[in-house]
């Protein structure tokens, strides 16, 4: 049975701001350190992966080495569509196409065109493992947020209804085959332990089933806080936060110190209640996913001012243990 890292393509999406890019980079690092040649793909004008590795971004469409056996690339949908139009337009230059109304008209009139040519670029990156002529064993897509990501995944069907002949038609069918094949492609959703983010992960599952007859291989719940206190401990903390220090209010010389102690105890109790409430909410949302029979992977909250490479390696090591396990084909 394959592990998730044994696929050709891992497609990662979820609600915006949940840490998809971090998880894509961490999975890429885990794949590279397991001996696979991996590339992380950002879509649109995003170039956040190089920053994590303290690299200057490369030009759109250019591959950037990050670590041994790991690289990144940015696919700009507008640029990808322009390159495709140029390829079918013969000697018409990209500058002329871009400045004429042809490009804007085609982009507006052909639903799914930009998304499809982006998916074709991704499919071309996956061909290395199959044809042994390129460098990548695994392609990891840091996809846009849920709605746009599902639009990308539906593009072969949407645009395929228009392009029935020619090279793009053949590529459309091969992209569709890749996306539907559970032995070649896995889908992951990233969420925070909040009701809204988990609901969006469920929407990803529904969209995959509707469009591709597939499902999520796993849901990564990012930023988990530890469960530090039992119910009995929280009751004691609440009591400490409301009770007065011994000797409070007797008019003695230590009343000022006792007042300061009371303020500190109240602040500590509020902080403890806040952390406990957030942790309980997160674990309740994880339970919600598990009740729906999702494979759930928890990633602890990162305590630090910024996510650096050292923190990424820690996250990657935790993910690697789960991703290397044999995984059933989702869908």
Overall description:
- The chain has 331 residues and is α/β, with parallel strands linked by helices.
- It has two domains: 245 residues, Rossmann fold, CATH 3.40.50; 66 residues.
- The protein is 53% helix and 14% strand.
- The chain has twelve helices and eight strands.
- An eight-stranded mixed β-sheet has the order 3-4-2-5-1-6-7-8, sandwiched between helices.
- A hairpin with a 2-residue loop joins strand 3 and strand 4.
- Helix 3 packs across helix 6 and helix 6 crosses helix 7.
- The chain is elongated and about 80 Å long.
Brief description of this entry?
By secondary structure, the chain is of the alpha/beta class. It is built from 12 helices and 8 strands. The chain has 2 domains: 245 residues, P-loop containing nucleotide triphosphate hydrolases (Rossmann fold, 3-Layer(aba) Sandwich), CATH 3.40.50; 66 residues.
């Amino acid at each position: 049975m394959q592990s998730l890292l044994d696929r050709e393509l891992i497609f990662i999406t979820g609600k915006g701001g949940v840490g998809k890019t971090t998880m894509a980079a961490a999975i890429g690092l885990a794949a590279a350190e397991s001996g696979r040649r991996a590339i992380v793909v950002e879509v649109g004008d995003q170039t956040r992966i190089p920053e994590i590795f303290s690299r200057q971004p490369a030009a759109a469409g250019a591959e950037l080495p990050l670590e041994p056996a790991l690289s990144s690339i940015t696919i700009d949908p507008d640029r990808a569509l322009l390159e495709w139009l140029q390829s079918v337009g013969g000697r018409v230059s990209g500058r002329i196409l871009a400045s004429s109304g042809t490009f804007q008209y085609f982009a507006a009139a052909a639903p799914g065109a930009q998304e499809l040519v982006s998916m074709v670029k991704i499919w071309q990156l996956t061909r290395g493992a199959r044809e042994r002529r390129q460098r990548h064993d695994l392609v990891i897509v840091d996809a846009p947020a849920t709605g746009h990501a599902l639009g990308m995944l539906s593009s072969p069907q949407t645009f395929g209804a228009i392009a029935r002949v020619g090279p793009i038609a053949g590529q459309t069918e091969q992209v569709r085959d890749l996306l539907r094949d559970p032995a070649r492609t896995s889908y992951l959703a990233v969420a925070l332990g909040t009701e809204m983010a988990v609901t969006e992960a469920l929407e990803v599952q529904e969209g995959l089933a509707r469009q591709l007859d597939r499902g999520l291989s796993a849901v990564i719940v990012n930023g988990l806080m530890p469960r530090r206190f039992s119910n009995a401990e929280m009751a004691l903390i609440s009591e400490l936060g409301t009770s007065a220090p011994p000797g409070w209010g007797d008019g003695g010389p230590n009343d000022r110190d006792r007042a300061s102690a009371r303020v500190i105890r109240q602040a500590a109790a509020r902080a403890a209640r806040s952390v406990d409430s957030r942790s309980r909410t997160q674990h309740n949302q994880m339970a919600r996913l598990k009740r729906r029979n999702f494979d759930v992977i928890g990633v602890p909250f990162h305590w630090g001012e910024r996510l650096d490479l050292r923190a990424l390696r820690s996250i990657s090591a935790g993910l690697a243990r789960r991703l290397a396990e044999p995984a059933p084909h989702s869908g």
